[in-house]
């Protein structure tokens, strides 16, 4: 008996896993072989061919394209958006957004999503996924593209980048981590011309420490994971355009982080000509042109520049090698790599408004496989249960014969299967807009899924009002009898190219909720489809007994939420950001910079100073003692959990130096930076128990507090440095363990230009959210 329990304990220990995937994502020998083969190809190419490989071509049918070079057998590259599935495609899936998958806090699901997306990209003949995204990180909750990325927490985003990239590339497709860096707002993201005057794009002015500890952190994970490509963004970093930023691209990305793939420009983000190639850009997309369409960049210009000794051929060779190595490494030159789906041409034309009625619209290759089931599963797992008074949820089918469904997000979409620019029209919101969106081949609305459920059960009435204009001015008297339960579906439209104007859900949502809640006392449940934080002024309304943040779930929107509402899925999502009812609580950094008036025509007017440093999202709230509405890491379940044992902490044996030391000479590739940064220094363990009567999953979270007297001022009081999603049967207990690396326990020392473990007691806390910390300990390393 004793031995079987002991063996079970050991097995549990090994399966609950640690916090970090510590090994690099590339097979170094294979990568170096591919690099040698790339060099061999380079040596056989002429200047024109080499210049063509690093310059996009408008001859392709994908959003971005590199033409083949037949003399060496290079078949060309099809680069397609985006981070939630292949966008310009027919018969492809729309997956949950980045924020949704990070709300699952589930490494396995992050990876499964990446694998399924890779299968679809490959099936369509695309070689490169233009994603995942870690920029924006989410400095402001109003950022229009935050939902494409994962979380304002760099650790969580780093894990999601790592899992997604490894999975995409294991599927034979290249990832492109975007947008490096400081791409934190959409407003003035590009250079504009106002009253005839050229106004430069916003400059994200970020100090060195903040850059390393916050915004660069997940890109280090991406490089560590072996990402093939990194995309530089439209905006400026410390006054220099990202794609021209030598310090960022050469010193930091390729130098410090050891990135050996290629830097690709965002679409028309290249601001200078040949100079940008000297500054570290390796591929200019979408073709031989600059952001200013009147000028050309690269292509034959680059060949001429080399020919005239104005640009070193060695650097051109380096650029080509960087582009070819991942292509060869992933076996994309093999004959079995699918050709580009012919429908791609027409979908790309359609994207630019060029599809004419007389043109054919051939059906695409169906690459969806059985991904719907996975998408439904991920959508449910990304739901965060925020409020559940008297266990109103899950709905007890025996108690419900008359369901009321309200809100414009509940209904079927009314403006086509691609999100229109106007996100306010009636219809459920599965994904945001712009290049991170997708073309649904179908979308299941909540109302459809609820009706389906009612039909299956029989004897249930489903009444609904999905017109928010009507609901916000009082609930029309069209309901009889009054519903047993009222489900209010709200949505928040977020898109590339614009920032959010407020944190309130759209469609006069506050009035909608208040009106429905007054009709449905103590029986109103609100579900939000949103790409991030919302104010919820109605959260304390006693008639609102349930709240679920369902994020952007993708095409299975309705099915995913019905699974949670009816208890087929026990919710286990956790907020990957903090929420408050007062936008000002987020600090000045929450405001999107908007220069207006006469200053708006000043060339250098758009300066966004990241003076808050590391203090964004929960770090700002926790360090300034501000009460949130629902905190980072928070989420309820239909069961309950507790930590069942003490937190045990042990330091690696032998002396530990404050700095990581020099890069070991036996490593050719130091992916993600000095390999010593990724070594485990501290191990923590405890155990978690499901104390309820239902199987479910929880997320055990580990936060680190560096000693405030030996770190620079502005260091947050605690930061996430580990999490483990644990599935438990009722009554079951499992061990959890966390391996903290040197990087996890260090701060960026700007003088030493290195990571340093501080002297003194480092606090370690374990719990179920950033404010629900149940076990604390300290460890002294130095
Ligand atoms: C611009 C977006 O910023 C980028 O994320 C996307 O990949 C390209 N357009 C291509 O559509």
Automatic annotation (TrEMBL):
Subcellular location(s) per record: Secreted
Role description: Beta-glucosidases are one of a number of cellulolytic enzymes involved in the degradation of cellulosic biomass. Catalyzes the last step releasing glucose from the inhibitory cellobiose.
Tree of life domain: Eukaryota
Coiled coil: none
Enzyme class of the recorded protein, top EC level: hydrolase
A Gene Ontology cellular-component term: extracellular region
GO molecular function: beta-glucosidase activity
Pfam families: Fn3-like, Glyco_hydro_3, Glyco_hydro_3_C
Pathway field: Glycan metabolism; cellulose degradation
Keyword Hydrolase: yes
Position of the signal peptide: 1-20
An individual GO BP term: cellulose catabolic process
Name of the protein described by the UniProt record: Probable beta-glucosidase G
Catalytic activity as recorded in UniProt: Hydrolysis of terminal, non-reducing beta-D-glucosyl residues with release of beta-D-glucose
Biological source species: Aspergillus sclerotialis
Main location per the UniProt record: secreted
Lineage: Eukaryota, Fungi, Dikarya, Ascomycota, Pezizomycotina
Tagged with keyword DNA-binding: no
Domain Fibronectin type III-like as annotated: residue spans: 698-770
Entry similarity comment: Belongs to the glycosyl hydrolase 3 family.
Keywords: Carbohydrate metabolism, Cellulose degradation, Glycoprotein, Glycosidase, Hydrolase, Polysaccharide degradation, Secreted, Signal
EC number: 3.2.1.21
């Amino acid at each position: 008996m004793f031995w079987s329990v002991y063996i079970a304990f050991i097995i549990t220990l090994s399966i609950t896993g640690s916090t970090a995937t510590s090994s690099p994502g590339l097979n170094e020998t294979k990568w170096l072989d591919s690099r040698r083969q790339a060099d061999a190809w380079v040596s056989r190419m002429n200047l024109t061919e080499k210049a063509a490989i690093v310059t996009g071509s408008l001859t392709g049918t994908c959003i971005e394209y590199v033409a083949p070079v037949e003399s060496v057998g290079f078949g060309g590259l099809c680069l397609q958006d985006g981070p939630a599935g292949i966008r310009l495609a027919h018969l492809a899936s729309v997956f949950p957004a980045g924020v949704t998958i990070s709300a699952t806090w589930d490494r396995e699901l992050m990876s499964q999503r990446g694998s399924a997306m890779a299968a679809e990209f490959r099936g369509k003949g695309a070689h490169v996924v233009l994603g995942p995204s870690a920029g924006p990180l989410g400095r402001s909750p109003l950022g229009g593209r935050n939902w494409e990325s994962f979380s304002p927490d760099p650790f969580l985003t780093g894990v999601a980048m790592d899992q997604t990239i490894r999975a995409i590339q294991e599927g034979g497709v290249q990832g492109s981590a975007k947008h490096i860096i400081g791409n934190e707002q959409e407003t003035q993201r590009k250079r504009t011309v106002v009253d005839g005057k050229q106004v430069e794009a916003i400059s994200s002015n970020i100090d060195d420490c903040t850059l390393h500890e916050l915004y660069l952190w997940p890109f280090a994970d991406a490089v560590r994971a072996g990402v093939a490509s990194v995309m530089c963004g439209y905006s400026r970093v410390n006054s220099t355009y990202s794609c021209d930023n030598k310090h960022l691209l050469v010193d930091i990305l390729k130098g410090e982080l050891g990135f050996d793939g290629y830097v690709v420009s965002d679409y028309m983000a290249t601001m200078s000509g040949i100079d940008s190639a000297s500054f570290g850009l390796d591929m200019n997309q979408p073709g031989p042109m600059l952001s200013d369409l009147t000028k050309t960049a690269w292509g034959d210009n680059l060949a001429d520049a080399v020919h005239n000794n104005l640009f070193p051929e060695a650097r051109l060779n380096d650029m080509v090698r960087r582009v070819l190595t991942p292509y060869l490494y992933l076996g994309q030159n093999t004959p079995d790599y699918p050709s580009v789906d012919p429908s791609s041409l027409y979908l790309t034309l359609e994207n630019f408004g060029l599809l004419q009625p007389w043109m054919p619209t051939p059906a695409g290759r169906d690459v969806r496989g059985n991904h719907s089931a996975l998408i439904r599963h991920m959508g449910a797992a990304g739901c965060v249960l925020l409020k559940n008074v008297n266990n109103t949820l899950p709905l007890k089918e025996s108690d419900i014969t008359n369901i009321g469904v309200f809100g414009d997000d509940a209904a079927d979409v009314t403006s086509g299967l691609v999100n229109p620019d106007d996100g306010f029209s009636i219809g459920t919101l599965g994904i945001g807009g712009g290049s991170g969106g997708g073309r649904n081949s179908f979308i299941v609305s909540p109302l459809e899924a609820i009706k389906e459920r009612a039909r299956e059960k029989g004897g249930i009435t489903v009444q609904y009002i999905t017109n928010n204009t009507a609901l916000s001015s009082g609930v029309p008297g069209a309901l009889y009898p009054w519903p047993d339960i009222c489900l209010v579906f709200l949505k928040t439209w977020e898109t590339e190219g614009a920032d959010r104007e407020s944190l309130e859900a759209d469609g006069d949502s506050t009035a909608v909720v208040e009106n429905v809640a007054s009709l449905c006392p103590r029986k109103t449940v609100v579900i939000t489809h949103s790409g991030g934080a919302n104010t919820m002024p109605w959260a304390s309304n006693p008639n609102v007994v349930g709240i679920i943040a369902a994020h952007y779930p993708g095409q299975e929107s309705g099915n995913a939420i019905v699974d949670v509402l009816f208890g087929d899925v026990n919710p286990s999502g956790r907020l990957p950001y903090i929420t408050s009812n007062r936008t000002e609580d987020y600090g000045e950094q929450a405001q999107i910079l908007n220069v207006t008036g006469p200053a708006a025509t000043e060339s250098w007017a758009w300066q966004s100073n990241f003076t808050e440093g590391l203090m964004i999202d929960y770090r700002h709230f926790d360090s300034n003692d501000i009460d949130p509405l629902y905190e980072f890491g928070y989420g309820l379940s239909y069961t309950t959990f507790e930590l069942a044992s003490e937190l045990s902490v042990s330091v690696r044996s032998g002396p530990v130096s404050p700095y990581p030391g020099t890069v070991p000479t036996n490593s050719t590739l130091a992916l993600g930076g000095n390999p010593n940064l990724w070594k485990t220094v501290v191990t923590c363990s405890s155990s978690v128990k499901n104390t309820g009567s239902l199987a479910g999953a929880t997320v055990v979270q580990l936060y680190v507090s560096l000693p405030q007297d030996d770190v620079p001022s502005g260091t947050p009081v605690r930061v996430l440095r580990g999490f483990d999603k644990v599935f438990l049967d009722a009554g079951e207990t499992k061990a959890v363990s966390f391996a903290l690396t040197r990087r996890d326990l260090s701060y960026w020392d700007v003088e030493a230009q290195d990571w340093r473990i501080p002297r003194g007691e480092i606090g370690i806390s374990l719990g179920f959210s950033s404010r629900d910390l149940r076990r604390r300990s300290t460890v002294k390393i130095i």
